[in-house]
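Lecture 7, part B: from sequences to assemblies.

Below are the input chains for today's worked example.
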Amino acid sequence: MAFIKNCWYAAVWLADLPERAPFGRIVAGERMVFWRIGEDKVAALTDACPHRKAPLSLGVVQDGQVACRYHGLGFAPDGKCVTNPHGPLQESLAIRAYPVEVRDGMVWVWTGRADKADPALIPEEVLAFTRTLPVTAYVTGYLHARAGHKLFEDNLLDPGHADFLHPFLGGGAMTRATRTFVKSENSLRLTMIKDAWAYPPMFRPGMRDPDDVADNWAEVLWNPNGAVLIRIGATSVGRPREQGVITWTAHIFTPESETTTHYLYASGRNYNMDDADYNAALAIGLRASFVNEDVAMLEGQQAVLGDADLLDTKPHLFPMDNASVQARRLFDSLVAADQADWMVPN
Amino acid sequence: MAFIKNCWYAAVWLADLPERAPFGRIVAGERMVFWRIGEDKVAALTDACPHRKAPLSLGVVQDGQVACRYHGLGFAPDGKCVTNPHGPLQESLAIRAYPVEVRDGMVWVWTGRADKADPALIPEEVLAFTRTLPVTAYVTGYLHARAGHKLFEDNLLDPGHADFLHPFLGGGAMTRATRTFVKSENSLRLTMIKDAWAYPPMFRPGMRDPDDVADNWAEVLWNPNGAVLIRIGATSVGRPREQGVITWTAHIFTPESETTTHYLYASGRNYNMDDADYNAALAIGLRASFVNEDVAMLEGQQAVLGDADLLDTKPHLFPMDNASVQARRLFDSLVAADQADWMVPN
Amino acid sequence: MAFIKNCWYAAVWLADLPERAPFGRIVAGERMVFWRIGEDKVAALTDACPHRKAPLSLGVVQDGQVACRYHGLGFAPDGKCVTNPHGPLQESLAIRAYPVEVRDGMVWVWTGRADKADPALIPEEVLAFTRTLPVTAYVTGYLHARAGHKLFEDNLLDPGHADFLHPFLGGGAMTRATRTFVKSENSLRLTMIKDAWAYPPMFRPGMRDPDDVADNWAEVLWNPNGAVLIRIGATSVGRPREQGVITWTAHIFTPESETTTHYLYASGRNYNMDDADYNAALAIGLRASFVNEDVAMLEGQQAVLGDADLLDTKPHLFPMDNASVQARRLFDSLVAADQADWMVPN
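Predicted structure of the full complex, as structure tokens:
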């Protein structure tokens, strides 16, 4: 399996972590146990007791430690065994601790060399919109999907798919948009613009002049850890973007395995911002769309592909696929550089 | 996997195809999408969009095309891309089209070289009985089974199994019958006769003299595409067959994989022909028998065999197995000849 | 797969065998069919008809034979075909018969050389306690588990795990106990003693002086076929064991595969012996404990291990693991000796 190791992965929404129990999740092929160690503080260890490999995620949390429920060994957030009912504490009982940062309600975990775990490398821009919006102006969620993270990232690096897969959202603008993208060392930004076109259907109910033509735009920020921010907006022709509708959606695709993905999302907007009922309805609608449209389609795509990589199947690509192909190339080069570098300390 | 390619397979009952949506099925290891293109007309393509391999069976049908719901590419029944919202139409966007024929309510698909797809090769005799019977004199159905097509074909090439597996049908005649079979280039016909024996139990309720002795007979027509017709009858001793009861049952075993099978069946009779209630009850009874008796037993047999071929496990065969062994040999020789010939055009 | 062949395995509780039908179970990787052939008498054969490998466990029992429901071949308890509707009886139609003994309500089956199937090798001590107890003083049960038998045996060879995994049972005594064990040619006996300590929680409600200190003890008898007897008791300080509470629990772990296990258990006690209501409640509580505590933990452990053997994963072992490591070594040496000796007669 080829994952980037020196990398922050979104593991779980902080709100989804139990208050007083450990939580197991496989991130980029590694079994991890997470638990709360204070307000907005979380620890992560390898999810296997060094004694007999029982999962610590079946254990208990007490005194800031996670304790194995099989024989009572307790581990501190740094992985050191600090409770051993069966003998002396020994250095060799330590297990691997993963650097963890909690930002914007998300638990980020670093799977590579601990000495390189610089919190500044967290792609914070992806969830930054949630900091300033009222809680009634955004929703969050989690889905598990039996399709690989690359298929999900491809999907978002081509916002034009909305015109076909999401009739509620797509109005034809994205398919016709002018695309430009900028690739940096470790991210890719795609901009799509279609001026003087109908408003996307989902925006119309809230517009004063829903039948007006609008300047439509989308911006996608892709990060190689699977964290993608897509901003979509429309504004009356010639007006600044800030005067129109804007939505921010973070789609974070954390690999579980090569072909299964943790899909963590957040979606905010600059209209109906104080309408809790609208927000609740949107939470249901968005989730239904992700489940029935994106996940269903990409799981079907994965079923067709089996274990094959899409690019090895001679797909017939279009110019609109350039961004996703470039992102895949960047990903591959980062994996190659990364594999020369990371180590598993424990 | 060893399938015959130059071959018509029964894919799906026409009645089971959605009116306005595509339908996906794996036939002989190949993913196919089917859709209606007119009364009694059906198209079949590879079930993967050439763009990014999304399943077309998750798409939509419009204007006689099947359109991918991911990015809107539309394909004509000949596999050519005729709608491309993202660029010019190109020859290279074509996908493989499978020759399709609809006969007797069954959608037959050809998996080999298109230039050899002669409709005259469809084993029409298997379903011909449905043409002349009133609709209240036959039933049809579909089952999916986790056992290979060969095990199902073995099963029918030995009608004697009914005496043990189907107590409602078997009355001991078939086990004691005189067997003869004739093998042709691409089929096998087995005849079984047991004169002066009790009527099979299922026929008795409808007989004037149910306790009479009868001349019992069965004829099995096996085709190497898994389409089997079994006619079973009984008539008063010495009388012509036409004066007795006759049943026709088409058991069509289309391989999905080596060890899973699409089981399509139709069963008709020459008595109680206008009795819709009897027909409805028989539909339920037959299906229960196939599910609880044949499929249960053959799935058990497949579980014992695992991936092994029955003939590689040193089975202890009896003379009654001759027909099925001969059918398997014919199948193997046809596969060998076929593999030298077929090609995948796309 | 490495199983001991010359070995009696507990296959099924006699009470769980159908009165008049065959019963299929995979024991140590071998598919077997069991059926009753008299009061407290059971036969076992390979669960595959020699004709076409249909499972005999889908068949019927008649006249002391098991008959295949596919084509009616009947087999005697010695594996000989004694009914063949399709031809003469032949020696070559015989299938493998497994020696079977019924003891203490358990059906034991021998998977090795028939000439070595000495009933004296059944580890009878494990269930002997059920012979003298009234039926209201013990319970029995069966569970299927997706974890290997060795993990279950490890578990019991360290009774200290109860202090952590079974709060209802563990009171800290076992973790602090003095351990001694004796390894014989084909078994291992572990003794644990902790004098002057609190009674285990589950015993207290029935004690006259529940808050008294007690002499706590446990004895584990491990047999290489997975049959384990664990006796746990506590008595007022300095008093003979017979004056205190004693429980006997047989945990019998019959391998299905390397990573799945048939868990057959029986648990008796020397208190509340005539209380049927207590006994019924205990049956539910014990089963809940096995399912939610042991099986859940060991299935988690197996999931972490995958197909790896625990000892190949560099576990950090403690002195309390000595008994289980010694049992594993004895097992491995017995497998090696056994493999040089056993044969499959059929």
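Note for the exam: The longest strand of chain B covers residues 188-198. Keep this in mind when comparing with the next example.
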